[in-house]
Amino acid sequence: MTIAAPAAPDDKDAYAAEHPEHSDEELLRTLPGAIRLEPLPVPLDIDQESDENVDQVKAHILSKVHGRRRVPLVGLDEVYNKIYSLMEQTVTEGEGNSCLLIGPRACGKTAVVETALAELRRQHPYEFLTVRLSGFAQTDDKMALREISTQLEAERAAMDAPADRDDTEGRARRSKPSSEVMARLLALLAHPEEHGTSYDVVSIVVVLDEFDRFTMHARQMLLYNLFDIAQSRKAPVCVIGVSARMNAGDMLEKRVKSRFSHRVLQVAPAATVGAFWQVARQCLTVERDAAGQYVLRDGPAKTPALAAAAESWNRNVDELYADASGAVRQLVERVFVTTKDVRQLCLAWAVAVAMAGARYPHMTPRMVTDHSIQPLDSQLEYVLGLSELELVLLICATRVELKYTTGADGEQTVAKKDGPGVINFNIVYDEYHSLSVKSKLDRNAAGSIVDSVVRIWGRELAMAAWENLESAQLIVPQTGPVNGGGDGAGSREMKSMLSEVSMGELAEIVQAMDVPDTVKAWCRTL
Could you tell me if 308 and 332 are in contact, meaning their C-beta atoms sit under 8 angstroms apart? Predict the structure, then answer.
């Protein structure tokens, strides 16, 4: 709606008396000196598109934007059919299968697996169990075995008992030692012939997210046993690994590769801007079912008004993208050429979707671009938000890596030639401790009254800060098995890491931060 500016009203009340048809919001946009905002869209009649209908559409869209609801697959039918066929053969024929699904992040790998599992559960209810593991959560084989046992027994008990049963046994089960956990797990996975019984064994689908991180476990025992069970018909098990690393299959040890089926499926991201938009459009619009009805969270639209609200919403989204020179099209193209991450594009729309209401249900380009949620432009910007302990550990990690990779003459040292990955928590903490003690002694010797000494924190707090750096991907695990080996806390401290930040980049950022001069000096000299 475009409103002509008044000649020169003395105040808002006088102008409001002359123009009673304008709302308070329209008056603020019209008065001289006010911020010139984008004209509001023409309001719809509340009777035609009620607040309740718009809220239902918004709730449906936001559930997809934030990952709480599955999004229909686009352009992934071939990979989906292969994954579903493997799972179905395990459930119906009792076959053991294994597969590795690889592709860049946000290309649809997890969506393919979860959609296949949902369809398989609809076609074959109560005929299989699902185990989901993540390389980020289960960092060693002991944690993974306990999680497998917990999930298997919980799902099996859910088939035979009501959901509101007492969980006393479950809490006791999770507190059992690893030997009993392994015995229970083998009993669950064992084929009935091994027990001399004839009961029907339940098929199991195991999904290993961040598969490459499981290859870093000591001796890869978990992967070896899972692949061995799937290959030797000990139980109908389908093992599906999901990884963003293209060389994930090459990270397997030779004996593990001998048990793996070598079935690798690749998921490619959208090749064109149009294909990328079609994937994003599934997140931002209300889909139709086979009968042509709009489907929301509670099922098909039950009233004509709700269907009209869904149709109006879809038309609004399509019109925003149709403008070839508009801000929305530029946003889509920018995300496509940089990350091809559909999740990033959907988050850019999240605020605009939440702002829509019954009176103004249509989004505008400015609502999408001015209020978009965008990630940081560079990984280095995370450094500005680090705590002092996290910052000094990152500096020490970069210092140690620099010491071990170049000598005084600039050539590679023996440690580098023997192989990368000499950086771990123990070495970095020793560097941090020695630098802190040395700075304290230097200050005492110089008689300085300025307190620029870095505090020496304990190992437990330092380990938590070290893991935060890994979560921010400022340090990354070394490719291949862990050098230190072993399980538990020892493997965490000996886990081989590599710094993703160079000393030059770190020094430039630290010089502009409010940190002690001692910390800044650590970035300048070794």
Answer: no
- Asked whether the beta carbons of 491 and 485 are under 8 A apart, the reply is yes
Torsion angle defined by CA atoms of residues 291, 293, 294 and 295, in that order, rounded to the nearest 10 degrees: -60
Domain range spanning residue 21? Answer: 1-40
Q: Are residues 417 and 513 in the same domain?
A: yes
Label each residue of 30-61 as H, E or C. HCCCCCCCCCCCCCCCCCCCCHHHHHHHHHHH
Helix, strand, coil shares of the chain, percent, nearest 5, are 55, 10, 40
Q: What is the CA radius of gyration of the chain?
A: 29
Q: What is residue 299's DSSP assignment?
A: E
Q: Describe the crossing of helices 273-284 and 342-355 by its angle, rounded to 10 degrees.
A: 40
In tens, the pLDDT along 405-415 reads 644 444 444 34
| C-alpha–C-alpha distance, residues 50 and 44, integer Å | 9
Kindly state whether residues 109 and 250 are assigned to the same domain.
yes
In terms of domains, do 319 and 366 share one?
yes
Judgement on whether residues 36 and 60 belong to the same structural domain of the protein? no
Query: The tokens 């729309």 sit on which residue?
Result: 349
Could you give the dihedral angle defined by the CA atoms of residues 282, 285, 289 and 295, in that order, rounded to the nearest 10 degrees?
130
First-to-last C-alpha distance (Å) of the chain = 65
Distance CA 101, CA 114 (A): 13
**How far apart (Å, rounded) are the C-alpha atoms in residues 256 and 254?**
5
pLDDT at position 448: 56
DSSP 454: P
The tally of domains found in the chain comes to 4
* pLDDT tens digits, one per residue of 238-278: 999 999 988 899 989 999 999 999 999 999 999 999 999 99
429 CB burial (10 A radius; 0-12, 13-18, 19+): buried
Interior angle at CA 503, CA 497 and CA 508, nearest 5: 135
Q: How far apart are CA 217 and CA 483, in angstroms?
A: 10
**Sole residue written with tokens 């005084």:** 408
Which of 398 and 27 is assigned the larger pLDDT?
Answer: 398
Q: Is the separation of the CB atoms in 17 and 11 below 8 Å?
A: no
